[in-house]
Amino acid sequence: MSRRTWFITGVSRGFGRIWAVAALERGDRVVGTARDLGTVSDLARQYPDTFLGLPLDVTDRSAVFAAVKTAHAHFGELDIIVNNAGYGQFGMIEELSEQEARDQIETNLFGALWVTQAVLPYLREARKGHILQVSSIGGITAFPGIGIYHASKWALEGLSQSLAFEVKQFGVRLTLIEPASYATDWGGSSAKRAAAIDAYGPVREATRSRLSANRPGDPGASAAAVLKVVDAEAPPLRVFFGAVPLGVAESEYAGRLEVWREWQPVSELAQG
């Protein structure tokens, strides 16, 4: 496998950092972005020839295009693009402020869109490349208390599926990575929480109990999985990370099909 160049957003911690290290350790080159470059200074020291850290707020479209241009100029190519930057906004739908809702979509959806738009001219010209969109099991199902997060990921899923068809002709591949719960900082200090409304207390407690019953995965184990995906000759459009999501998806879609079939006579009535 020849050495490739990665562009990864959000490498300060979590999946972004773990995958950056995995790529660097096998000899690949990595451009890693973070809001605070101090969080990746150790990578710059340890891998001075193969790691380039760039400061970036993915919600700033012009800054995204400038960062991608710098990355391509520095290493001469871009092969693997990882849209990882994002966070979880907690709060019932009624609890969300306008700014909280907008910020979630700006980062999780538009951030990925801006990076994707910025890299595509280089990938099209090279007629190769692989875009990894970090979605979530929350991109195919939904739970109470994180509705705006789900909205951002469901939107990313639809955008990415269309994109996969659009860029296939250029030799560019796309994979949506849909992780289960992992022991990252996603629900910790990197998360944001809306002001609570007391009336939703029972729903909040039930959700907390459900989440605490699940054993989170080891984020370090995801490194081997992501390398398998990028090294595959025919990578999937979607792939779960973790053992739990497949069962969740099977239950989700079985339930949908059951209801759709039950209401099919009404659907046919509506056709006229």
Overall description:
Strands 3-2-1-4-6-7-9 form a 7-stranded parallel sheet, with helices on both faces. It has a two-stranded parallel sheet with strand order 5-8. α1 crosses α7. The chain is an alpha/beta fold and 272 residues long. α1 links the parallel β1 and β2. It is built from 9 helices and 9 strands. The chain has 2 domains: 237 residues, 3-Layer(aba) Sandwich (Rossmann fold), CATH 3.40.50.720; 27 residues.
Reconstruct the topology from this structure.
Blueprint lengths: L4 E5 L4 H12 L3 E6 L6 H6 L4 E5 L5 H15 L4 E4 L5 E2 L7 H29 L2 E6 L12 H21 L4 E8 L12 E2 L7 H12 L9 H10 L6 E4 L3 H18 L1 H8 L1
Parallel strand pairs: 1-2, 1-4, 2-3, 4-6, 5-8, 6-7, 7-9
Helix pairs in contact: 1-7, 3-4, 4-5
Task: Name a few traits of the molecule.
48% helix; 9 strands; alpha/beta; seven-stranded parallel sheet; 272 residues; 2 domains; two-stranded parallel sheet; Rossmann fold
How many domains, as an integer? 2
CATH architecture of the largest domain: 3-Layer(aba) Sandwich
Q: Any idea of the CATH class of the largest domain?
A: Alpha Beta
CATH superfamily of the largest domain: NAD(P)-binding Rossmann-like Domain
- Which structural class do the helices and strands define? alpha/beta
Q: What is the averaged pLDDT score?
A: 94
Kindly provide the radius of gyration, computed on alpha-carbon positions and rounded to a whole number of angstroms: 20 Å
Backbone shape:
globular
- The number of strands is 9
Low-confidence stretches: none
- The string of secondary-structure elements, in order, is EHEHEHEEHEHEEHHEHH
- Major sheet, described briefly? 7 strands, parallel
* Amino-to-carboxy terminus distance: 57 Å
Number of helices: 9
Percent strand: 15-25%
Strand line-up across the major sheet: 3-2-1-4-6-7-9
Stated plainly, the CATH topology of the largest domain is called: Rossmann fold
Helix content: 40-55%
